[in-house]
Amino acid sequence: MKTIKVSVVTPDGPVYDSDVEMVSTKAQSGELGILPGHIPLVAPLQIGAVRLKKDGKTEFIAVSGGFLEVRPDQVTVLAQSAEKASDIDVERAIRAKERAEQRMKEQRLEHTDFRRAELALQRAINRLAVSERRM
Ligand code: ATP
């Protein structure tokens, strides 16, 4: 079966490097499925999961936004943070979710602080969903 090379890179270093049969992810414009030979494109990503089909199995990576670059034989995901499902610390994500929810309930919260808490909540929910491989 044809494969495409995938690299997920963060400022802390590479998180994933492998040849896979298919990559699916959430671009800001919607769900994107990429097979080998896909036309080149660059797209901003949402906070979400990257799903990788490899040897008949699906692997999941949580990414907190960033960019996707597709070339016919290579997909690169450049993200501020990314974790493989098995590397996610569930307790930490639960604490982050609770902190963000608390913050969003505060009175007189500045718009930018509310937005920051909302994004932290989305990252935590995404990590929890990916750790349970629900995405
Ligand atoms: P927290 O408040 O728990 O730090 P956060 O969403 O603010 O969560 P980020 O700024 O997105 O965290 O990430 C900071 C670093 O910590 C990144 O390297 C990221 O991969 C890692 N990280 C964050 N949360 C988790 C988690 N639950 N499990 C594993 N790694 C995590």
Short description:
The chain has 135 residues and is α+β, with helices and mostly antiparallel strands.
Topology:
Layout: E1 4-10, E2 13-20, E3 22-27, E4 30-34, E5 41-54, E6 57-71, E7 74-78, E8 82-84, H1 90-105, H2 111-131
Parallel strand pairs: 1-7
Antiparallel strand pairs: 1-2, 3-4, 3-5, 5-6, 6-7, 6-8
The structure holds adenosine-5'-triphosphate.
Explain this structure.
- The chain is α+β, with helices and mostly antiparallel strands and 135 residues long.
- It folds into 2 domains: 4-85, F0F1 ATP synthase delta/epsilon subunit, N-terminal (ATP Synthase, domain 1), CATH 2.60.15.10; 88-131, Up-down Bundle (Single alpha-helices involved in coiled-coils or other helix-helix interfaces), CATH 1.20.5.440.
- It is 27% helix and 47% strand.
- Strands 1, 2, 3, 4, 5, 6, 7 and 8 form an 8-stranded mixed beta sheet that branches.
- A hairpin with a 2-residue loop joins strand 1 and strand 2 (13-20).
- Helix 1 (90-105) packs antiparallel against helix 2.
- The chain binds adenosine-5'-triphosphate.
- Adenosine-5'-triphosphate (ATP) binds at residues 12, 64, 81, 83, 87-89, 92-93, 96, 120, 123, 127.
- Residues 12, 64, 81, 83, 87-89, 92-93, 96, 120, 123, 127 line the site of adenosine-5'-triphosphate.
